[in-house]
Amino acid sequence: MKKRALSIAMLAATLIAPHVGAQTASAPAASSEAVAVDPAAVDALHKMGTALQSLKRFSVTTQLTGERVLEDGQKLQHTATAVLDVDRPNRIRAIMTSARSHREIVFDGKNVTLYTPAQKYYATTAFTGNIQALIDKLGERYGVEVPLADLFVWGTPQAPNDQFESAMFAGQDYVGYDLCDHYAFRQKNVDWQIWITTGEQPLPRKIVITRRDDDARPQSVSVIDWTLHPDFKDTIFTFKPPSGAKKIDFVPVAAKKG
User: Fold this and answer.
1) Dihedral sign, CA of 96, 77, 151, 196?
2) Distance between CA atoms of 197 and 182, rounded to whole angstroms?
3) Is 174 exposed, middle or buried (0-12, 13-18, 19+ CB in 10 A)?
4) Local structure of residue 143 (DSSP, 8 states)
């Protein structure tokens, strides 16, 4: 998994203790990558990715909670929500809301629009790729992050699963009413956990990320809810400027720095 793919949960915070019956509980300290990385845990990501890529039309909501660390080490929490309506391969509407900001991204397969309701500013640019390509362009060219970007990366070649220092099954837990398999991974300066629904359609229900490059070990958590048979209309992917909205230009990151 690319580091960017971890960004979907970088706004949050609780850590659930591993199940007593975790498979790795009796394993000795890993002496090599072959020992530390459980192939079954990696395979679970592959299966989840396949399930995600099979979804064509769906809605997904995430509740995010994150930690900000002050200079004296005190941690402050902040929260946000994101809602995505998706019609693959090339239509998406994303709404991101927090106390600090409210943004909307609308893509109809031909044009993508970023709208900020508080300021009533919107910017539109032409684009004809798929959703994953759009996410890449918005991030690299304009510095705009799309929430839950991992959902469009898992299950593709852009989400390699060969970068783990460790990977393990950590038992089962409920997320809401859904029984989930709990997995834990370590790579570079990040520890992360994921809860995947059991059954025929394994989907991510919760993700926890812990930064190891900060002595305070700030954490983030994303709890994800799915609607696999949404009733939204196709018109939601067409942006219509509200009364009084002002059109501005999309400014590339390089131009902003200049």
Assistant:
1) negative
2) 9
3) exposed
4) -
Angstrom distance (rounded) from CA 110 to CA 169: 42
| Preceding omega of 89 cis (within 30 degrees of 0) | yes
User: Rounded CA gap, 11 and 256, in Å?
Assistant: 25
Q: Kindly report the backbone phi and psi dihedral angles of residue 193, in degrees, each rounded to the nearest multiple of 5, phi listed first.
A: -125, 150
Task: Return the H-helix or E-strand segment holding 61.
Answer: strand 57-69
Positive/negative CA dihedral, 149, 253, 64, 62: negative
Q: Please tell me the number of Cα atoms within 13 Å of 87 on its side-chain side.
A: 15
CB count within 10 Å of CB 249 equals: 9
In the chain, what are the domains? 3-12+32-257 (2.50.20.10)
211's enclosing H/E stretch is strand 204-211
Residue 41 has phi, psi (to 5 degrees) of -70, -40
- At residue 25, φ and ψ (nearest 5 deg) are -60, -35
State what percent of residues in the chain have pLDDT above 90.
77
Tell me the average pLDDT of the chain.
Answer: 86
The percent of residues above 70 in pLDDT, for the chain, comes to 84
Condensed to tens digits (0 to 9), the pLDDT of residues 104-154 reads 999 999 999 999 999 999 999 999 999 999 999 999 999 999 999 999 999
Per residue in 93-106, pLDDT (tens digit) is 999 999 988 999 99
